[in-house]
Design brief:
The protein has 149 residues and is of the alpha+beta class. It has 2 domains: 31 residues; 102 residues, Sandwich (Immunoglobulin-like), CATH 2.60.40. It is 30% helix and 34% strand. It has a 4-stranded antiparallel β-sheet with strand order 3-2-5-6. It has a 3-stranded mixed β-sheet with strand order 4-1-7, with no helix packed on it.
């Protein structure tokens, strides 16, 4: 009887099977890490296709929204004494504080329910108080509106 001191060798099938299992385990770890990373990324804000703004004031207004988290998002510029459509807007959540300004003068703010902006028939109406605040601060109405009076 011959006694061998060499350890038994694995067949090439055993080596291939172990390599496949190791590769599959590595792929599973990579996929799991990718899923965790993707889920941890911040979600992009939702957008509104467009909203209609009725600006009855004699001022061209710049509108911005301050959302509940304190971030400010410009809505756009609206012409005086008419309705304007503003498009591709960031949805600022359930409560919007709309800030208005013209000619470098802040005209104050007003609150709206941001959920209303999702209704395609809804119109954001600039309150008359905005015009009163601007006039009190010395802002002048748009010249072409003065000529029409």
């Amino acid at each position: 009887m011959t006694v061998s001191s060499c350890p038994p060798t694995d067949s090439s099938d055993d080596v291939a099977a172990r390599t496949r299992r190791r590769d599959m385990a590595a792929i599973a770890v990579i996929v799991a890490l990718t899923v965790v990373i993707v889920l941890a990324l911040p979600k992009p804000p939702s957008h509104l296709r467009e909203i209609t703004v009725d600006n009855p004031t004699p001022y061209r207004l710049l509108l911005s929204v301050v959302s509940s988290d304190g971030s400010t998002t410009p809505l756009g510029l609206v012409e005086p004494a008419r309705q304007s459509t503003l498009g591709d807007l960031v949805d600022s959540g359930a409560n919007w504080r709309v800030w208005t300004s013209t000619q470098g003068v802040a005209a104050g703010n007003f609150d709206i329910d941001g959920r209303d902006a999702h209704d395609p028939d809804w119109v954001l109406v600039v309150p008359s108080q905005v015009a009163d605040d601007l006039a009190a601060q010395g802002a002048t109405p748009e010249p072409y509106l003065e000529a029409r009076r």
